Amino acid sequence: MLWKRRKKFQKLNFNLFKWIFRRGIVMKSFNKQKLNNIFSIIFVFFTLFFLNTKSLIAEKITNYDVTVQINKNGTLTVNEVIDYEFDGAAKHGIYRDIPLRSKKNGVDIYKSYIKMNSIKRNGLSEEYSTKNFNEGVRYRIGSADRFVENGVNRYEFNYVIYNAVFEKDGIYQVYFNAIGQFWKVPIEKAAVNIKFGNGKPVTENEISKLDIFTGEYGQSGKDYIENLNNGTIEIKTNKVLQSYNGLSFRLNLKTDNISPTFLDKLQTLYYAHPLLAAGPAIIIFLVIYGFVTWYIFGRDVGKKAIVPEFNIPKDISAMYAAYIKGVREPKEILTIGVLSLLSKGYVEADDKKGDGKNVKYTLSDSKRSKPELAEEEKIVFNALSDTENIFKNEKSLYKASNKILKLFENEYKRKVYRDNSIFNVAFIIGIVIVFIISTNANSGTEGLADNNFEVAYLVMIGCVFGIILNRVFLVLKNIYGNKSTFLKIVKWLVVLFMSAIYGVLNFIIIGIIMAMYTVYSKVIGRYTADGMRKKECLDGMKMYIKTAEANQIMKFNDVDELIAYFKGILPYAVALGVKNEAIKLMKNTIKLYNFDESTYSYINRGVHFNTYDSFILANTVSRVYNNAYNKIREERFSTLRNDSGSSSGFGGGGFSSGGGFSGGGSGGGGGGSW
User: Fold this and answer.
1) Given pLDDT bands bounded at 50, 70 and 90, which one contains residue 30?
2) Residue ranges in 179-273 assigned as alpha helix (H)
3) Cα gap 293→524, rounded to integer Å
4) Best CA proximity match to 240, nearest among 190, 192, 180, 193
5) 164: Cα separation from own chain's centroid
6) Residue scoring higher pLDDT (610 or 154)
7) CA-to-CA distance for 552 and 543, rounded, in angstroms?
8) Handedness of CA 12, 14, 20, 26 (dihedral sign)
9) Which CATH class is domain 63-260?
10) Where does the Predicted membrane protein YciQ-like C-terminal domain lie (predicted)?
């Protein structure tokens, strides 16, 4: 039994060993396969890593030469020669970013202008396009339709920079970022040569100070060698400039080789800050234009001295007199119209208490002969109601007032006054030019945009905005009317808002032009011969009412003649703004005749004194007009709502005296391939 148990145990051990042995072989085979997979993954990863690293570092600039020529007119002519080495990847060319402005607290503290003379590749002119960005301009060299050759390609940029030379106390300073800090590739060698544009040498005596800085933006490295050789300042790097490293210099010169004239300074000012130069010029031109055109076309000629006139004009109604003197408010025109009908007997006033507070106005049913009405007076008469309340037809009175204003406008322009509004166009053109200059000023280059797509985009945006704005004005015009002061204010506010978008200077200049336009549009008009006669007649009547003394007051044969005169003249007094003076004149005239108290009452009733002595009639007409206006406006709003519901629908600038750094000054930037 013991032997059997031992043999059974040995068999179990053998089977266990056999299982473990087989399991070990399987595990060994599995681990070997897994290890091979891991090595394969690592091999592929490192292969891709080294290939990708090669593609990153293969592209480089083998040589970067910059010649900075300081011109007598205060500009810089810069020539860059860049030997750019491409790797095996297909590329269209390179791009070059050049900063043109520097801001502090959102305000431009430095702004330059670049004029690109030429761009070449391997000695031949190369196609390029420009695109403006927030602080400068990008030149993209090459064509999207073809690729450049692999290896080294030589690119040459030649351009002029305005507003890069500054003067203070007789010292001229050039603070220039010759090798930009934003190249994405390393630069093996770089050299900067500085000389005068007139061929004269730069001498040691002329150099007040020369600071040079290398490294990343903001650093002040000294990885360079500098030498004055045959009148040229030579600066060379003594180590490779890694990507995003560059070189700047700050040169102070006391020399006669830089001497910009006034015109040179004006040209630089225009290029760097076009609106600062052109804005005052536009304003001065418009002032001269305004004076000359006013003197020739707007100045009143043949104007006679005003003499007192006590006769009532036969061919000018009181309403038209108000219009000629500048009244454009419909409610005032209506009130004067009712007073005219009252004075001519077409409307009667019943003032039972005699205090003027409860006057009842009705249409006259008298068959007596009455003076003939002017056309505008007939319009008011036909709008009045024949019921107890003559102002019941509120909408009719509202429409009558607008009809009269339209009638006056046509008659006034045709016979009385030439507004010469065609001459106002110069001021509109001036505003448009300011907008164009402001738009162009943001580019800092020769043109608004060399990219046709950008031009088309700006035009499209302008058209869409114009259509929307026109639609808004049409809606407002439909609600408030074309002559609405509110609509005019909205138009001017839109223009001012648009000008503010382009900056404070644009806002100020356009604001000045708009103020000039407002004044000019008032004085450029001129009265016709007939219009001048009418104006002189009304001015004479106004003078008589205001200045008549006892010995100048018109004499009357009887009381009825006095009543008839003042009944006729009082509506004109209201139209001319001298109602109180007319009432005073009437009282003084009555005193001359020493009438008794009953005669006073008779005269007051005859001329409807209480109507003129209070504002009740004017307030009534104003309330009627406002009620009609609000109703009509609400109807128009409702119509519009219904129609809407149913329809579908880089660096710093200026004269620097503090610590400099790599990337300081004008120029600089960087680039890469594309």
Assistant:
1) very low
2) 262-272
3) 7
4) 190
5) 28
6) 154
7) 12
8) negative
9) mainly beta
10) 309-585
